[in-house]
Specification:
Elements lengths: L32 E6 L17 E6 L5 E7 L15 E6 L5 E7 L5 E2 L3 H10 L1
Antiparallel strand pairs: 1-2, 2-3, 3-4, 4-5, 5-6
């Protein structure tokens, strides 16, 4: 799983000439957002946060602001299992009205993990 925070391919470059007033090319657009949260020790190096068992948490949100994915990584940037859930990634899905309808779980290798209803309900509440 690769979380890229660089500008997206195809993004327009800044204009050097004044644009006509009807041009909406610089208007903000809604798109997916990626957030990477990293925990650091006093030495400035990533450290595991004890409550979740990960040094980094990557989150992705859809155009509506719904959290669609959360992934956990160790201090070396490799997928790791979240404490309490035993999964390395959770993916949420939503219906056309933006209501959560499901949560899927994956291990550190990216393979699906089948969890019981309690884990699914907890993940849906965390989204």
């Amino acid at each position: 799983m690769d979380y890229d925070v660089s500008p997206r391919e195809g993004r327009r470059a800044a204009r050097t000439a004044a644009a006509p007033s009807q041009d909406q090319s610089n208007a903000p657009t809604r798109r997916r957002i990626e957030v990477l949260e990293t925990y650091f020790g006093a030495d400035g190096r990533p450290v595991k946060r004890k409550s979740i068992g990960a040094a980094r948490v990557a989150r992705r949100y859809d155009e509506r602001g719904n959290k669609v994915e959360e992934a956990y990584f160790n201090a070396d940037g490799k997928p790791t299992l979240r404490k309490g859930l035993g999964v390395a990634r959770i993916a949420w899905s939503y219906d056309e009205r933006g209501r959560q309808i499901d949560a899927s779980f994956f291990d550190a290798a990216g393979e699906p993990v089948h969890k019981g209803a309690a884990a699914r309900d907890r993940a849906l509440a965390d989204a």
